[in-house]
Amino acid sequence: MRKQVIPGSFSLMKKMNISLILNTIREKGCVSRAEIAKITGLTPATVTNITAELIKYKLILEAERGQSNGGRKPVMLRINSQGYYVIGIYIGSKGVEIIVANLNSDIIYSDNLNIDSSIPSEVILDGIKKKISRWMNINKGKQILGIGVGIHGLVQSRDGISIYGPNLGWENVPVKDTLESALKVPVFIDNDVRTMTLGESWFGLAKDITNFIFIYVGYGIGGSIVIDNQLYRGISEGAGEIGHTTIECNGPKCSCGNYGCLQALASEKAMVDEVKKLLSDGKKSVIKSWVNDDLCRISPEIVFEAAIKNDDLALTVIKEKARYLGVGIANLINTFNPSLVIINGQITKLGDTIMDCIQQEVNKRSMKYLQNSTNITFSFLGQDAVLKGTVALVLGETFNNPELVYSSKQFKKDCENNKKI
Q1: Tens digit of pLDDT for each residue in 243-273?
Q2: Rounded to two decimals, what is the model's pTM?
Q3: Could you give the CA distance from residue 261 to residue 343 in angstroms, rounded to a whole number?
């Protein structure tokens, strides 16, 4: 079936067609011009003209010849993974990670910064600028498509502003403008969990999934919702605050001020707090000797390690928290009916021990018809999800707005002593 073309100017139609062709090539991996025309409903002439332009700008290239049905073997097209590079930045509450990757998200360079809430945002961003500038000066032949930034806290992605990073002490920090003005490269930002979700969508388990939910269990609990291949952001970009849905009306107080939130019941902080309480009440655990009776030293890593070694107290606490997580997931299944729920975080180290608890609650509390159509699984990307997501952030923006490639080439030409990139 031919796709309907939205009425508009010639330039708008061309932009839409370029985006359609780019995303088709990305999704198929390797595809002929004839197949692109069939899939998109565009004329063979339009496909030929646009792919020639994309080859000229090194976004795609001709690969091996494909299978023939009796005639000449077709020339296959694929994304030119080495034609451009993407810089990815993850600004977390305790550190900054910086990578340079190709368009397949293979990392060719990495660096980091240790930070904390006592360091002003200007100092942190200045440190990031210096590290990236140093790499760009050494690698002037590398063509940078853009910079993707995943950042802790509330983010206004359209304007590139860190609205509120509670663990960083950031408020209304203009991340996009600050980096763009210094580095002369397009910058795109989003919060860390949505960035992880993009990583899963482009390079992880959700690569071919159009409707799914991503949940990250860490010090807090974050989530993100994908509907028809699009991140659902909500009217003020606050959608996906799964950790602040109420699970138990009279439960413990959450950092948001509410009581009984999923985050207050099932996060890593909730696990550590419960372990500390039980040990203070005289319960036995190997954890106590590991920290030399100093309960302040107990960390999520220690609790998970004890559970892996079959410590009864650690296992009991983690299983209880996993059941709460199952209740939250059941609510999501009943609300959104996703085909997939992906869970990421250190909790996944316990594998089936945790998954069994989650699945039992989901089976108990979600509608049977809906639960049967939802697969719940652990991410295989782990901590790499956020950095792969920064690559996907740039690719998604570029492929949906291909004029960025053309304008940025001219921009860089003017800014780098008129040297062609």
Answers
A1: 999 999 999 999 888 999 999 999 999 999 9
A2: 0.85
A3: 18
